[in-house]
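Hi support team,

I'm opening this ticket because the web form for multi-chain structure prediction keeps timing out on my end. I have pasted the exact lines I submitted so you can reproduce it. The total is 725 residues across two entries, so I didn't expect it to be a heavy job. Is there a limit I'm missing, or should I split the entries? Thanks in advance, R.K.
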Amino acid sequence: MVDFIQALGSGILVGLVYALLGLSIVIIYRASEAFNFAIGEFLVIGSFLFYIFFFDLGLPLLIALPLGLVAAGLVGALVERLTIKPLLGRSPLSMTIITLGLGFFLRACVQLIFGSHSYSFFLELPDITQEYGDLLFLSDPIWAGMLSLCTFGLIIFLLFRTRWGLAIRATSENQAKAMAFGIDARFILLIVWAISAACIAIAGIMISNFGALSSMSAIVGLRAIPVVLIGGMDSIGGALIGGIIVGVCESLAGAYIEPLGLIGFKDVAPYLLLLIVLLIRPYGLFGEVRIERV
Amino acid sequence: MKQRAFFVLAFTLSLILLFIGPLSAKEIKTLSQFPMSGPVGSLPEFGWGFIDGMNWVNNEGGGVNGKKIKWFLEDMRYSPKVEIANFNKYCAEHSPDEFLIATGYITGGLKPLIDKVNKEQKIPWLDGSYSAEIFGPDGGPIKYPYYYSLGATYGDQLKILLKWIKENYKGKGDPKVGLVYSPTAWGRDGLAEARAYAKKKGINIVAEIEYPYSATSATDECMQLRKAKAQYVIYHGYSGASGCTAIFFKTAKKILKRAQLMGTHYTTGRMPILVAQDAYDGYVGVATRPFCDAVPRAKTPMDNKMVKMAHDFAKKYRPEEYKKGLRGGGIKDMFLYMDGMTYAFLLQKALIEADNAGDLSREGVKKALDNLVWDFNGMFGGKTFSYKSHTIPMLQIFKAQVKLVDYKGKKVPMGAVVPITDWINVDEVKW
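Hello R.K., no limit was hit. The queue was backed up. Here is the completed structure from your submission:
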């Protein structure tokens, strides 16, 4: 039972970070119906930008974090202006394919600037490790889970309790109608990419704080794929549930199935689960069922 | 008429010199391949060390008894396919009488080339692989006569660590050891030998955990080790200190507070000090080379001749890169630079020995390597080794001493791995 609670708790904490990654995919998808495959590279770039402010320039965390997120958001906005905006009005598939190429380009840029070796990443946050007998939850994953959850809440507040959020939601419902009501849909898309890039950066910073940062950290971005496909591509709540499901699934597979000799099953388990979910609910657990005329 | 005859003679002689001359001047050609770029890592230092080493060999070093080596260097980008393709290309383009020796760096390239190198080309091949499968008891000179490794196998590295555990264990019962390795053929290499040796020595392997390089967390792995009550954890790590190594050490320091963290060659060195920082303090590991790059670099002990030579070379030939260090295209870890140099020196040594024996051919170089007894420019504290086993069988055990210090308002790591044993020749160890 202790093992189960341990695996469950660890899975939920890391799952909250995955949920944030999922959210960043969902908001872009809702705004433009494009899937951002460059999420891993955004994660690395956002983390490195924070690294520069916090570790290189030595700014206090409370200054370096907002600066890093603003910088990550600016990169997101710049990328949107240069690569996504010219494709507006075309098939969302074109944008999705552009993000694939963008991923390769950004990866090469990161390796050129920062090299491909690992960088030490210790945030020195207050130790809030929880230990109850054999149960142990380390401080860093708890911080990661808490900060991800707070960011998630902040984004929901922005989307559902502010005028900006209303404009974003209106644009995601129907771009043409939103523009008819005076909303600058192009600017909204820019904002969405910036917010998404900042969310990814937070997830990247939290994950890097588990040990180190390198261009290889981009691989974590792939975890967002099962998250959004399980939760539903257009569901914000689905991203949260999907993230937790993926985190728990990984953790339980690591605790119970891998010791049986099925090494590496932990990485595969979310994708197996994804296949099962897609067979039963092709639009994900909370995704909107689309009826298209052909 | 006489004038015409003179011109005809001169023209004929020129033609003879032009075509026959180069054929008679046999060249000494070598091919070396290092992983200098690619998706796994950017390690140009290997190439820099090799280039500087070979330039020295051909000039101040006197070449091969005065003859210059025509050396070729290729970046195989961590790809066995590239390594194999390069080798095939050079075999096709250069005569076996001139192309006398080749070097590679990864096990993945060795396996597909077994027949080509050992049966078809019969060319001596020096490699950075520590594969127990190729160079251990089930492989070795009888099975792969033309393969040579530049370090003791992973099997021997793991066995030396287990031996150290047995000799230093002061608790009750058998020591409990956990093994952590990557889910790759390389990561699993040497484990069978380690298991058998542990059984023989009465060491209890309580957990064997595969830990992938894509890991974002090591909590599950460390909790399994804690549950198994591992007193020693041997981390059979990756090249350099990739993020996953730092994640493991950082997590293990918190979850496995009483366990002694240990590791093999690629976890013993400078990069873990820089990345894992104080989580690396107290680590005990084995390495095939002397420690050559403290943090900060200026604190590196220079009592080892080869280490001093590597630093002198880097300061002289790569001053900018030496100064830059970790950032902006500098020499991240002097081990990489020194390892490039070791290939250059070993190539020269083997070729000189073959030339001295009057047989500057592939077979002659092979014989020279088989009979080599050398101290490798003082690399092993003056101890010599023989290449009979086709591995340089020297190992040393180190302990990490790392602390965080304040530097310009920041906490930065400072430390080194210091030897806690003398150099051990594994060919002479009574297991």
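A quick check on our side: Chain A has a mean pLDDT of 91. Let us know if the file doesn't open in your viewer.
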